[in-house]
Structure formats: structure tokens, C-alpha cells
Amino acid sequence: MGTAIVLTALFSYLLGNLNGAILLSRLVEKDDVRRHGSGNAGFTNFFRNYGKATSLLVILIDGAKTALSCLLGAFLLGKYGLGTEGMLLGGLCATLGHDFPAFLGFQGGKGIVCGFMTALVTDWRIGLILLALFAVTYLSTKYVSLASLLCAVSFLVLFPLFYPGKSLVILLSAVMALLAIFLHRENLKRLLKGQERKTDFFQKKGTEE
Predict the structure, then answer these.
(1) Contact between residue 166 and residue 97 where contact means Cβ atoms under 8 Å apart
(2) In angstroms, what is the C-alpha Rg of the chain?
(3) For residue 90, which of 63, 110, 71, 109 has the smallest C-alpha distance?
(4) Helix (H, G, I), strand (E, B), or coil: what is residue 174?
(5) Is residue 34's pLDDT more than 90?
(6) What burial letters (b/e) apply to 11-26, b meaning 16+ CB within 10 Å?
(7) With the C-alpha atoms ordered 60, 184, 9, 26, is the resulting torsion angle positive or negative?
(8) Domain ranges of the chain
(9) Which string of DSSP letters, residue by residue, matches 15-35?
(10) How far apart are CA 54 and CA 167, in angstroms?
(11) pTM of the entire predicted model
(12) Arithmetic mean of pLDDT over the chain
């Protein structure tokens, strides 16, 4: 089982290094999204700086790499009766690769798309709840960061509710949630001070979360 854990963690982390915002900014824009705005290599900063339909490809790439990591974890650890744990491990390591990519100077994104895809692949019920929460919060406030933070907190609550007594599931999901909250700590400070920027995805260009 140790080998399965190591392989899941290693390959998922490497997949996480495939950052959609950086890849597309280099290939399509001949630029590096991290040189602009917040310096964050995520969907919102990409949209703010380029404001094109290619922004949706950022979500597709980051979501796909996370889903693949989750499925890899389920495949390798499922034979030991740890399919759910394997998916969460794969998702967590892909998120770590996305947030702290070794091949990209450890300067990545904040992992919200990765977290959502991990939840959706692991348990579609949790994924849909998070999607609905994000949509309602964002549409009513236009704060991507607030929607992301509420989803992270809900992530922290929902997995224990749906998987009571499964300590490893609860631990892995908690690490993912707390990591997202930590990476949004500056956004939280600005929200509390009333200084956070809003983002309008329905315009050609938005503002960074």
C-alpha cells in the first residue's frame, strides 16, 4: 500500500504543476500571467488581464488534471478499500502541485478549481452543493474570494457530515480546506476592511479577487 500512496502523491503533484493560467498565458498570449495583477496563477487573474474566451480553458485544464489525479488515487488505493481516501489524496497532491509548482518556481494559484473538482469527483453531492453555494454567493456579491472562502469552509464541514467516522477522509478534506483558507488570507483581510475588489465575469474584463 505504501507504494500506491507514494505513486498517487508523486504523479498527482506532477500533474498539478500543469497550470492552466501559466500554460495559456505563455502559449496564447506570449506572456506570463504572474507578471500582472495579483501575480496569482489562477482563473480570476487570467480573466482580469486577458479577458478572453480562453479563460474558460484555464478551468478545463485545472479541472481535468485534478480529476485525473483523483481517479489515479482511486485506482491505486481502491484495491485496499481506500477508494475515497485515494481520490482525496490525489486531489490534495494535485492542489499542492497547482499552488506550489516546483517546475514553475513554486508560484502558482490558490487551488479553488482543484478543490471543487476533487469534491465533485469524490462525491457529486458535495460537489453540487459547493457549486450552488459559489454561484449564489458570487452572483449576489460579485466577490470571487468570498465565494471561494465560503466553499472552503463548507468543504471543511460537508465531508465530516457525509463521511462520519472516516478519519482519513476527514483529515485529507480538512487539509485541503484549510490550505485554501490560508491562501486566501489576504483576500479575507481586504473583505473585512471593505477593500476587496469585485469581479464581473460577464464583462470582457473583470477585477482580481
Answers:
(1) no
(2) 17
(3) 71
(4) helix
(5) no
(6) bbbbbbbbbbbbbbbe
(7) positive
(8) 2-193
(9) HHT--HHHHHHHHTSSS-GGG
(10) 40
(11) 0.89
(12) 90
